[in-house]
Design a protein that fits this description.
By secondary structure, the protein is mainly alpha-helical. It has 13 helices and six strands.
């Protein structure tokens, strides 16, 4: 069960103290503390109220770890510090912090390190940048190998970075897999959470609705282009969905209880990674 950890995480997310929540739920602060450390478990009525207060389901509050996974750099920093037998205070002094709170925030994932901080931490990790020749950069670009270049103290990927060895953009592949999984989940939940989805226009429309829900979310996360307009003000939809009507399905298809012919076409939003600008300076 993840109840204790989730209670602490959710409280910190909304910026409340244990005392404030204790007052809200009519208990003592030490009781709230015992719930968060796991030494005591609140009654089911309180758990229901806590879930309602935080706006989460009972299953999520009790059975799912709601804390986001630690970034890889956090785990690496912790590992390297311990490997070298150093304390957080030692690292803080190395970075020029007055106390260890600043570095502690980085190592716990509450704050992201700046480029300057990473530069100071490189000797600790024994990681030093390589000087890539023009020929080496060209080889990387031609073989879909991503490398980082520093501009104005910021690490950025190479101009064509982000392609896999199959010459496909990694964000397109990841979005495709996400969209497939999301749409499958939505349609599956429609089928299992309802007593029955009839093989009628109403049932087919319900399936179409779940497909559209997924595609709309795909637009919100930036994978699918929004509805746009051409120079003549004609609408260019970001996606289209096609589903059959019940009357177009044969008796054998209905008897099989397998709905086929549900299709969609979505326009990728893509990304701009290189900009070519031309211009002229004139007097008149």
């Amino acid at each position: 069960m993840y109840l204790a950890g989730n209670l602490k995480f959710l409280r910190e997310q909304i910026g409340k103290t244990q005392q404030e929540l204790a007052n809200l739920f009519g208990v003592e602060q030490k009781t709230m503390s015992s719930w968060e450390c796991g030494s005591r478990t609140p009654g089911i009525e309180i758990i229901v109220e806590l879930a309602r207060y935080h706006g989460v389901s009972l299953d999520d509050l009790v059975l799912r770890d709601m804390k986001p996974a630690m970034p890889v750099y956090v785990l690496n920093l912790m590992y390297l510090r311990k490997k070298h037998g150093m304390t957080q205070q030692d690292i803080s002094e190395l970075l020029g912090y007055r106390g260890k709170q600043g570095y502690n925030a980085i190592e716990t994932g509450k704050a992201k390190p700046t480029i300057d901080i990473l530069e100071k931490l490189k000797p600790l990790a024994a990681v030093y940048p390589c000087k890539l020749s023009t020929a080496m950069k060209k080889y990387c670009d031609e073989n879909c190998i991503t490398y980082f270049t520093t501009y104005a103290k910021k690490n950025v990927t190479s101009s064509m970075g982000g392609k896999v060895l199959a010459n496909e953009w990694i964000d397109t592949i990841r979005f495709r897999d996400w969209l497939k999984n999301d749409m499958q989940e939505r349609v599956f939940n429609l089928l299992v959470l309802n007593t029955k989805v009839p093989f009628t226009d109403e049932g087919i429309t319900a399936v179409e609705g779940k497909m559209e829900e997924s595609l709309k979310v795909g637009q919100k996360v930036g994978g699918i282009a929004p509805t746009e307009y051409d120079d003549d003000d004609n609408e260019i939809p970001g996606y289209t969905i096609t589903v059959p009507s019940s009357s177009s399905m044969s008796d054998s298809e209905k008897a099989s209880r397998q709905l086929t012919g549900c299709k969609f076409t979505a326009k990728l939003a893509g990304a701009i990674q290189v900009v070519n600008i031309s211009g002229n300076l004139v007097y008149a």
